[in-house]
Amino acid sequence: AIERTFSIIKPDATRRNLTGAITQKLEESGLRVVASRRIQMTEDQAKKFYEVHAERPFYGDLVNFMSSGPVVVQVLEGENAISKNREVMGATNPSDAAEGTIRAEFAESIDANSVHGSDSPENAELEIKQFFTEDQIVG
Ligand code: CMP
Questions:
Q1: What are the C-alpha distances in Å from 101 to residues 29, 89, 115?
Q2: How far is the C-alpha of 79 from the C-alpha of 42, rounded, in Å?
Q3: Among 18, 22, 51, 115, which residue's beta carbon has the most beta carbons within 10 A?
Q4: Rg over CA atoms, the chain
Q5: Complex ipTM
Q6: Ligand 1, residues 58, 68, 82, 109: which to mutate, most atoms within 8 A of Cβ?
Q7: Measured distance CA(129)–CA(133) in Å, rounded
């Protein structure tokens, strides 16, 4: 089915001017960018976005990192967009990521891992809503 998923190009990637290279990988996988905006997340926005990880030991560092510089938030659309995006991103830890994936090519560490992608249809919908209104998404 045609799905939408939510993607973030993280601060480590915007800092290294990789917005285009990462978007190209997403597009080459067949995903379409149907909404995109460059923002600086506030600490509160990052806290809310990663609320599911609030009890994890890495939560504080994660919130600090995600609000440390510009990010590009995107809505991606396509056939099985959620799993396709996870496939092209590669494993969370770049040392486990398959060759040719975004994280294998670009990520610096498990924290500075260049991209985020929704892990389920439910989360995709919630995450998209945190950053985009329906009229800002043009399929
Ligand atoms: P992301 O997909 O944005 O979701 C949560 C982020 O926490 C994850 O990518 C990683 O960058 C970061 N993180 C740091 N340590 C861990 C860990 N042990 N397990 C999962 N995610 C981690």
A1: 10, 5, 11
A2: 32
A3: 115
A4: 14
A5: 0.97
A6: 58
A7: 6
The pTM for the full model equals 0.98
Is any atom of ligand 1 closer than 6 Å to the C-beta of 83?
no
Query: Tokens for 116?
Result: 């985020």
Q: 79-98: per-residue pLDDT in tens? A: 999 999 999 999 999 999 99
Give how far Cα 16 sits from Cα of 38, 51, 53, 61, 120, Å.
15, 27, 26, 20, 29
Taking CA atoms only, the protein residue closest to ligand 1 atom 3 is: 116
**pLDDT of 18-67, one tens digit each?**
999 999 999 999 999 999 999 999 999 999 999 999 999 999 999 999 99
Residue 26 CA from chain centroid, whole number: 11
Helix 19-28 × helix 81-89 angle, to 10°: 130
Q: Which amino acid is at 28?
A: E
Residue identifier of the C-alpha nearest atom 20 of ligand 1: 92
